[in-house]
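About this split. The held-out portion is used to measure sequence recovery: a designer receives only the structure tokens and must propose an amino acid at every position. Recovery is the fraction of positions where the proposal matches the reference. Here is one held-out target exactly as it appears in the evaluation file.
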């Protein structure tokens, strides 16, 4: 009995008196990582930056920022834990950023897979590429903007005016990377005017490495070819009525739809893309009186030609880069299921005969002349 009592006493001292904060730290003791960024060092080493919001209203800085040079993301978490009084957790991670150099030279899949396997990290964390170093982006001062965690998260949250960008989460990226027909694409961020961030382009990936970017106006058409309905306003340039100058107008879309026809032959692939869109002109700097039907039809024809050229340039750039961010391989896969692979499709797509037709209709010109 004495031995049993002694054993119970020892167990109580070992477990009953343990510090509960070690197992279940209170929220004030947690460092909630909001943004995680990767900069290139070499093929084996990464420079990882983290931002932690300050819960205290009395703190001089709203956000703490830490940087560590390591080989694995979670190694940085352990290293940075020794630099802060907080217990770091990725449960509130919102955004993962990669420098363009990192995305082009090293690729992003290894880091995203490590995060994807972490049960604390949600699958809806946004992914983006930035111009320059991520560390510089996270340590910069942004006047009259929310703290950096909320600022970047809100910037990458889909909105109508930025619908040209394929807002991508970790889940979206890995899904696109591992499927058999398409390739990933993510927003591209830059600092502008010194104290603001802006989505300026779309970054396209082959496998997990960034290979090219595309300007917003062409990226809007790419999103339309994906079947996206809510398109942002589009700036369209056409020749003037006498052909000596250029005119420009802004079109706000009300309806858009895409139709793709393919011959399904991987030996001699042919693809025809038909894009139909209707909308209202909200701004116009030309001299045509758009209330006149003939003038309106002339503008529709010229604008359709303009957009056709943009669509063809976009598709040609994908063929040259050997990527398929639209997923055109879906139109060939069913008839070529035996022996199908993404590599086989991309090779066929790179030499495909691609044609397109854009049909634009103006349904309203407002009070414009």
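Reference sequence for scoring:
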């Amino acid at each position: 009995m004495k031995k049993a009592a002694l054993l119970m006493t020892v167990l109580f001292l070992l477990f009953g008196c343990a510090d509960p904060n070690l197992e279940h730290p209170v929220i004030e003791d947690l460092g909630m990582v909001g943004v995680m960024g990767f900069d290139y060092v070499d093929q084996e080493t990464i420079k990882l930056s983290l931002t932690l919001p300050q819960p205290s209203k009395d703190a001089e800085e709203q956000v703490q920022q830490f940087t560590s040079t390591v080989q694995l993301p979670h190694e940085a978490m352990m290293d940075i834990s020794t630099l802060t009084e907080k217990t770091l957790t990725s449960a509130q991670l919102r955004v993962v950023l990669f420098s363009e150099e990192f995305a082009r030279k090293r690729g992003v899949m290894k880091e995203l897979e490590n995060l994807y396997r972490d049960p604390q990290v949600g699958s809806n964390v946004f992914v983006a590429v930035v111009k320059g170093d991520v560390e510089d982006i996270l340590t910069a001062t942004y006047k009259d903007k929310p703290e950096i965690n909320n600022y970047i998260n809100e910037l990458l949250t889909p909105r109508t005016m930025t619908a040209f960008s394929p807002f991508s989460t970790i889940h979206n990226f890995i899904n696109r990377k591992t499927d058999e027909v398409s390739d990933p694409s993510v927003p591209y961020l830059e600092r502008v005017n010194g104290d603001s961030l802006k989505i300026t382009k779309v970054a396209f990936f082959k496998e997990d490495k960034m290979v090219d970017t595309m300007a917003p106006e062409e990226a809007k058409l790419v999103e339309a070819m994906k079947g996206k309905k809510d398109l942002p306003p589009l700036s369209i340039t056409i020749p003037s009525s006498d052909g000596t100058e250029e005119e420009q107008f802004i079109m706000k879309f009300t309806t858009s739809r895409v139709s793709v026809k393919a011959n399904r032959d991987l030996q001699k692939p042919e693809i025809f893309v038909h894009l139909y869109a209707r909308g209202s002109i909200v701004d116009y700097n030309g001299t045509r009186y758009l209330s006149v039907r003939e003038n309106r039809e002339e503008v529709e024809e010229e604008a359709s030609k303009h957009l056709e050229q943009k669509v063809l340039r976009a598709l040609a750039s994908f063929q040259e880069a050997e990527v398929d961010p639209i997923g055109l391989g879906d139109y060939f896969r069913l008839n070529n299921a035996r022996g199908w692979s993404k590599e086989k499709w991309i090779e066929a797509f790179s030499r495909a005969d691609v044609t397109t037709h854009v049909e634009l209709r103006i349904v309203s010109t407002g009070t414009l002349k």
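Annotator remark: The radius of gyration is 26 Å.
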